[in-house]
Write a structure and sequence with these properties.
The structure holds 2 protein chains of 2 kinds. By secondary structure, chain A is α/β, with parallel strands linked by helices. In chain A, 42% of the residues lie in helices and 27% in strands. Chain A has helices at residues 42-49, 71-76, 93-103, 108-121, 137-149, 167-184, 195-198, 218-225, 237-248, 266-276, 291-299, 303-327, and strands at 2-13, 16-27, 31-35, 57-62, 65-66, 78-81, 155-159, 187-192, 203-208, 211-216, 228-234, 253-255, 258-263, 281-287. Chain B is mainly α. A two-stranded antiparallel sheet of chain B has the order 1-2. The model of chain B is unreliable at 1-28 (pLDDT under 50). Classes of the chains: A alpha/beta, B mainly alpha. Chain A binds chain B through residues 50-54, 64, 72-73, 75-77, 80, 82, 84-91, 95, 98-100, 102-107, 110, 113-114, 116-117, 120-121, 131, 150-152, 179, 182-185, and chain B through 2-3, 7, 9, 12-13, 20, 29-40, 43-44, 47-48, 50-51, 55, 58-59, 62-63, 125, 128-130, 132-139, 311. The structure holds adenosine-5'-triphosphate and magnesium ion. The site of magnesium ion has 4 residues of chain A, from helix 1.
Chain lengths: 328, 311
Amino acid sequence: MAAISVTDLRKSFGDFEAVKGVSFEVGTGEVFGFLGPNGAGKTTTINMLCTLTKPTSGHAEVAGFDVVAARDDVRRHIGLVFQDPTLDGYLSAEQNLRLHAELYGVESKVVKPRMEQVLRMVGLWERRDSQVMTFSGGMRRRLEIARGLMHSPRVLFLDEPTIGLDPQTRASIWGYIRQLQQSEEITIFMTTHYMDEAEFCGRIAIMDGGEIVALDTPEALKEAVGADRIRIETADDERAIAELGERFGLEATVSEGAVSFAVADGEEFVPRLFAELQVPISSVNLSRPTLDDVFMSHTGSTIRDAEESSSKNRNRAVMQAMHAGGRR
Amino acid sequence: MSDAKPRPRAMASTTEPATAGAGTGAPAPPPTVEVRVPPRSWRSEVRAVKIVWRRELIRFQKDRMRIVTSLVQPLLFLFVLGSGLQQLSAASTDGVDLKTFIYPGVLCISVMFTGMFSAASIVWDREFGFLREMMVAPVRRSSIVIGKVFGGATVASLQGLILLALAWAVHVPYSVGLVLGVFALQLLLAFSITAFGVMIAARITQIQSFMGVMQMIVTPMFFISGALFPSGDLPGWLAVLNRLDPVTYAVTPMRTLIFNNLNLSAEATHTLNPPITWFGWEVPIALQVFMVFALGMVMLGVAIAEFNAGD
Ligand SMILES: Nc1ncnc2c1ncn2[C@@H]1O[C@H](COP(=O)(O)OP(=O)(O)OP(=O)(O)O)[C@@H](O)[C@H]1O
Ligand SMILES: [Mg+2]
């Protein structure tokens, strides 16, 4: 049985459609990644799956229960680590976990051993009596993961669990995730916008503008892009793009200050490029396809560019909202 | 359904400890502890109410500053205002110290303002995200709201108890009945005010606006209630407002309770603690107490409905 199955799920906020009909299935024990720029609709999708937001339309089942009709059953079987922190800083680590266990009705006699297990896993057992207020960002994140596991959920939702963490902490969080997958057969659904992390997932859905634009294993996604990516810095980007189009029939774009395009055999193409391009080239960079390229090939921009433009849109929306508010 | 069975995946990690910690030299992960979350029942709801209530107490206990700061206002009223106005009022209070007169009123304000702060904690919880952790738990929202209101009420009346320690300073002799009675009334008032605050907090999600709105509503209610003056011969408009103000029905029983503990002349009692009347009908104290309770329950109901409606 699939741990999560979603059919044509949609969510609108007023006129704005944040999630535009997504469908997918996640198998039991799978690590499934949702990848996309800011504002893609990842959190909105997670919120619908974990019953925090009602879908506008569509259908979703988590751990075999409908997220609308059997809300409580879904809640009992999922663990959540939100994008924004939700710990009580005044309580100690142990008190936070105990509170969670009580709210989820965990049998009293297993609360202690389970607490020790999850706290040891995230390396906070020694700090269990400290107030959470005194924890660093990474420690809090780890504690939240431990808390999400207190009631042995069947599906663990992690919304950007590694954002703002140093490489070691990120690595150890990935360590826990793999450990969990082995020892508890837990299904993991996570979002990220770190491309390198997405490669740890069994399968990835790439989301952009509220839609899933691609869904497959990281390898298959990269293979599908096929081509190598070449980035060149030139004296005149516009002319370079025009020339690449005319001479080689290549479609190039400017991103992050360099002209970038995909070709089938990169190594053989570079000498031709130098010989035939009229525009002076100051540097060249050839790379094998990465998830970045996958993202690019599906959305036409790098993930960072997509974020910039979405934050511009957001700013515009805020301005409009302020205007509308002012007139009222 | 599958949810009721313990899962068979338990001890998987203990059978192959070598693989887990191999490269890093880290200890093998401890064995998986079987946990299952039972279906919702009234017991799980009671547990939820209890833990939310406990959390309020733990936080109160850790927040010493709040205990101290919340005492400032009642002490000002009692000793500064009470002593200051004594000179003006000596003639008209039939020999009763003004401090003694306003003491019951001060017991009420202290509870009202701390109850308000208790309710504000739900706004903080929302701001710091913790409300979400409680809202996604597989329990009814009503359990969370009830735990919150009871917790807030307990905290507010515990603070009120500190003021009870001041009774000797205003010439009120102690008795078991007095202590229990005052505590019970404070608990009741704290419950209603906290329910009111939580009801408002369901709508107003920003702490500044919340405190503003609460001040705007609670302060006039307190002034109009007659916590600081006898509600006998008021000008018509004020008498009407006074009778409409729910706090009146908390202050009067409190004052009656305290005055019953003093040896006052019938005259003094009559001027200082006149019975509350509706169109000439004397409202029994028991009814007044009941009204405060009923209003608290209604507001709790509204608060629950509001939190249930939000997603
Ligand atoms: N409550 C809401 N009301 C109105 N618009 C919303 C609401 N929640 C989300 N949105 C909008 O829906 C879109 C998707 O937001 P969402 O939080 O799902 O993005 P995301 O993919 O999680 O982004 P990020 O990487 O920044 O977390 C955004 O444009 C956002 O402004
Ligand atoms: Mg998000």
